[in-house]
Amino acid sequence: MTKGLDRTPLTRDFFDRSVLDVAPDLLGRTLVRRTDEGLIEVRITEVEAYAGEADPGSHAFRGRTARNSVMFGPPGHTYVYFTYGMWHCLNLVCGPEGHASGVLLRAGEINAGAALARVRRISARNDKELAKGPARLATALDVDRSLNGSDLFAGPTPAISVLHGTPPPSDQVRSGPRTGVGGDGAHQPWRFWIESDPTVSPYRAHAPRRRKPK
């Protein structure tokens, strides 16, 4: 169990703000994942903001669908999607309700329950790699589509919740383009990370898929 951190739970009002305010403010917070096998905690070190209908990089850019409906609120829920036919990614929905937006959790440091995370992340070379990247983070935390729409404030022991943790000083927060986002959404500096933290994932620019010659 993590010691010396502020274990006060965040409130729903924390998430009922602009995604560009919530995203950097999530850095250093402690995400708690409760499973049947035990508790896992991760200090969030890297995130990306997605601003819904106003953001060409967002799943909700073209409006509400069955897949992205959770992004439209209310705030303080999880949005989990499946990508590349093999990986899940965990997002936290923020407000205001009716306007889709969410924060993708890209990386973090496992501070409690590392033994459970290692079982799920057997390819990790060390503990710094357990949640280094969005798919790795979701895998380490045993997150899949069954948690899509989970309420962070569902009673005293929700499946996922977020504690105050230890936010970094503002001069340690960096921002830049989002990883792998192309087109009109490629250049917004909406990826945020803690400078020099070893769990932050490497940046990769969008690489368009090339069609195979016929």
From TrEMBL:
EC number: 3.2.2.-
Pfam families: Pur_DNA_glyco
Keywords: DNA damage, DNA repair, Glycosidase, Hydrolase
InterPro entries: Formyl_transferase-like_C_sf, MPG, MPG_sf
Keyword NAD set for record: no
Region span, Disordered: 165-214
Gene Ontology molecular functions: hydrolase activity, acting on glycosyl bonds
Cited PANTHER family: DNA-3-METHYLADENINE GLYCOSYLASE
Family named by the database record: Belongs to the DNA glycosylase MPG family.
NCBIfam families (alphabetical): 3mg (TIGR00567), PRK00802.1-3 (NF002003)
Protein name per the record: Putative 3-methyladenine DNA glycosylase
